[in-house]
UniProtKB/TrEMBL annotation, chains A, B:
It comes from Collinsella aerofaciens. The lineage of its organism: Bacteria, Bacillati, Actinomycetota, Coriobacteriia, Coriobacteriales. GO terms for molecular function: DNA-binding transcription factor activity; transcription cis-regulatory region binding. Residues 4-58 form the HTH lacI-type domain. It comes from the Bacteria. This is Catabolite control protein A. Gene3D superfamilies: 3.40.50.2300, lambda repressor-like DNA-binding domains. Keywords: DNA-binding, Transcription, Transcription regulation. InterPro entries: HTH_LacI, Lambda_DNA-bd_dom_sf, Peripla_BP_I, SBP_2_dom. Coiled coil: none annotated. The gene is ccpA_3.
Length: 370, 370
DNA sequence: GCTTGTACTTGAAACGCATCAAAGGGGCCG
DNA sequence: CGGCCCCTTTGATGCGTTTCAAGTACAAGC
């Protein structure tokens, strides 16, 4: 049970300590026989290099840290997935920490990663990173994800405003006369979506628009409540297009409307706004705009690599990724549900979505969502 | 940009190196003024302890590593969530690595964690851990999750067989005469579910049962294909109850059946088998059995703590968590879809589900799935 | 046989910190 | 005033590696 260290391997193999180290890090420098001997000894003894010591002695390790606000948020997972693949491509490991919606914890893990000699760190922050500016001038490359920083630094953000615009344009294209936006714009991202919707509609003063605040957490239950409220209105005061700022909200709205006997999309169309897998993997898909989470993660790692390779003092560099990507559309099964984009059978649609975005692994990854 | 180290802080604060170290690790040993002075200096200089050095000097850190096969699998996330909460409760950090369905990578991260002086490591292995037995006799506490080990060691597994049994019993209770199980039992977990179904049905020889293999990955598309195939049969050869070994499969089956004009659950009932959030968060919920992922993660950390505290040589210890937990049932919106558990309105049902399982944070966590 | 070069191998130094025995300082008691 | 004890601070030591200048062995060329 006592840990076997490099010197044990060296002694046992009858070579010096430095040679074992070379076997691990620069195998090309050793004579093949020596290498083989050492590897055998390593396996026989069950030697496991002490990462702490390696890092201490050798400087940074080839690994990145990623701090996410939650793990059960599909978008964050797309980020993680994109970051992971890109990191592996460069031969880096990716370690993920869950801040669990807690400022303190986010800060804690951030410091932890910076102190672990990670080669770089990424965060999808809950608050603006300006909130803890100390972090931005750390001796480790850092990239903020899904957020706009005013301070100099690196960040990758999705164009949330465009996302709102796209949904609004979809509504316009579908001939909407009265649009209801459902949800609490508690986060900057959601606020921007609303802004995008307003901007797009500014050109169409004849279209009526209202925004209904949902409960604090934008849950499906909140959506259901608002849906019920909408259903209860006289027909001529009902919107003909509802946008859930969140897919889950949209789901709730649909449930309520249909429960109350209102046809979707016959009388009211409903769309979501964040490309949640549940929106298009369920048996009744929902039209939604998918923000490019995977791409954000990928780009984040690329910015990290850039900082590492150039070793230049971090100048400001921001990357914007258009959210336009694609609108997940689908045909539903049930007669009565959200059939608005009736192009082809649901599953074929999904299949074709995957096929057409092979370069964008998002679809593939989400597709495997069991 | 040069990293500031503990000696810099000490010099700047006019105290010795050991005192700064104490400020960090044993603040109660310092006079309040000294502590304050040091903390101010730390902040002023932006000092960040080098975790590698700490670990090297001080032995294990209070942190656990968790290696997951994928991140976009709801079940794994429940594990992560449970493990995280339990770990934090004990004051431990949790770092997560994504093995991305790759044996090599799983092994890599496992070694990485073991070498990082983690206090303990958990894996949800893809293959049986007997596959790489070297890992089980490492000098770091390790717990295997969601798998049965024959070797001595610690593991936490869900009772997948019970899961199959529960679904089968549901089918029986609903008066099924012909059950079709859909899916490829590629993994042990799925095999056990099938086994459970068979065992439960052994008592009912009059009920016909068939198993249809799905494509390699049990995707929704696979389910759709099989659903279409079922739909094409003459009415009297069609099952009246379909079990998807995976919720996604079940979703696909439903889509196909309804597309082909077969009423669900009027003519055919369909149930899933793994409590995927998409099953019950979507606008059309699916009946499914939820395996206790959250509980598995929690229990895993508890076993780790046990090993750490007792420091006894790891004896075999296995924990089984019954999957019985709860059957997520729901009322759907659309007339034609899977309404089989028509108890009360969908969202109320969900609300009550959450309320009744406050102690089981699974529901709460999944509920927040945006 | 001697020199030069090539191909490996060696081992001491440093990495940044936690630890802990020992020293320092101050108050209290006799 | 001396002796004790307690509270606080000190700094040398070692943690397991990597690195790199210095060393060894051997072959080829003269």
């Amino acid at each position: 049970m006592a840990k076997v260290k490099i010197s044990d391997v060296a002694r046992e193999a009858g070579v010096s300590l430095g040679t074992v180290s070379n076997a691990l890090n620069h195998p090309e420098k050793l004579r093949p026989e020596t290498l083989k001997l050492i590897n055998e000894t390593i396996n026989r003894l069950g030697y496991l290099p002490n990462q702490s010591a390696r890092q201490l002695a050798g400087g940074a390790t080839k690994s990145f840290g990623l701090v996410l606000p939650r793990l059960d948020h599909g978008f964050s997972l797309q980020i993680a997935s994109g970051a992971h693949n890109e990191a592996r491509k460069h031969g880096y490991d990716l370690l993920i920490a869950n801040a669990d919606n807690d400022d303190i914890l986010e800060d804690h893990y951030l410091r932890y990663f910076m102190g672990t000699q990670m080669s770089g760190v990424m965060v999808q922050p809950m608050a603006s990173p300006d909130w803890h500016p100390a972090m931005t001038k750390m001796p480790v490359p850092i990239v903020h994800l899904d957020i706009h920083c005013s301070e100099p630094g690196y960040y990758v953000a999705a164009d949330n405003e465009a996302q709102g615009r796209i949904i609004a344009e979809l509504a316009i294209a579908r001939g909407a006369r009265h649009i209801t936006v459902v949800g609490r714009a508690a986060f900057m991202q959601l606020t921007l979506r609303v802004l995008g919707i307003h901007k797009a509609l500014a050109l169409h003063p004849d279209i009526k628009i209202e925004v209904i605040d949902a409960g604090e957490w934008n849950t499906a239950a909140d959506g259901y409540g608002i849906g019920a409220q909408i259903a209860a209105r006289p027909a001529d005061e009902r919107p003909d297009f509802v946008v859930g700022l969140t897919d889950v909200l949209a789901s709730g709205v649909i449930s309520a409307l249909v429960d109350k006997g209102i046809s979707v999309p016959g009388q009211v169309r409903v769309a979501g706004c964040d490309g949640n897998p549940l929106a298009w993997s369920g048996s009744v898909p929902l039209t939604t705009v998918a923000p490019p989470g995977y791409e954000i993660g990928r780009k984040g790692v690329q910015l990290l690599m850039e900082q590492i390779e150039n070793k230049a003092p971090a100048k400001t560099k921001h990357v914007h990724i258009g959210s336009a990507a694609r609108t997940v559309t689908a045909v539903t099964a049930a007669e009565d549900i959200n059939r608005q984009e009736l192009v082809r059978p649901f599953l074929l649609e999904r299949a074709s979505t995957q096929a057409s975005t092979q370069t964008d692994a998002t679809a593939i990854n989400l597709g495997a969502y069991l």
